[in-house]
Amino acid sequence: NIQTKGEYYLADAFQLMIDQGARFRVEVVDVWEDCGKPETVLHTNRYLLDSGRDNSASVNVNHSVIVPPVYIAPTARVVQSVIGPYATIADGCDVRNSIVRDAIIDCGAHIEDTMLERSLIGERAMVRGRYRVLNVGDSSHVDDSG
Tens digit of pLDDT for each residue in 23-56? Predict the structure, then answer.
């Protein structure tokens, strides 16, 4: 039972594994991206899109403008919107009449009549109305449409 201030630490887990005979090997890490805060998650998203995850040339959208780099999942629906730069739209999302840039929209989220920037939107969340920087958890509803 290795705990410090009631928490387990990765270094303690590694030491326990070594004590039990586990073997490790060393690998070179070219890039280390932290994802502990919203701004670092968005920074990592920008890095990934700049490093080959951009699929803007092959996306199928309806009456919309795509500003690379972006990733739009094949099952996402984008209608009359501007997406990008640096937007990731996950599977099953529905984005309508919106502007989304420098944001991550998670699976199944519904975005309508809004402008999102520097935002993280959780799974199955619904966001409607007004311009905002917004971080919304899974299954949340934000409606400022009046």
Answer: 999 899 888 887 889 999 999 999 999 998 899 8
Question: Each residue of 82-135: pLDDT tens digit?
Answer: 999 999 999 999 999 999 999 999 999 999 999 999 999 999 999 999 888 999
Q: Does the pTM of the predicted model rise above 0.85?
A: no
Q: What CATH number does domain 38-143 carry, 1.20.1300.10, 2.160.10.10, 3.40.1190.20, 3.30.70.330?
A: 2.160.10.10
- What DSSP line would sit under the chain, residue for residue? ---BTTB--HHHHHHHHHHTT--------S-----SSHHHHHHHHHHHIIIII--GGG---BS-EE-SSEEE-TT-EEES-EE-SSEEE-TT-EEES-EEEEEEE-TT-EEES-EEEEEEE-TT-EEESSEE--EE-TT-EEE---
Please report, for the chain, the start and end positions of each structural domain, with discontinuous segments joined by +. 38-143
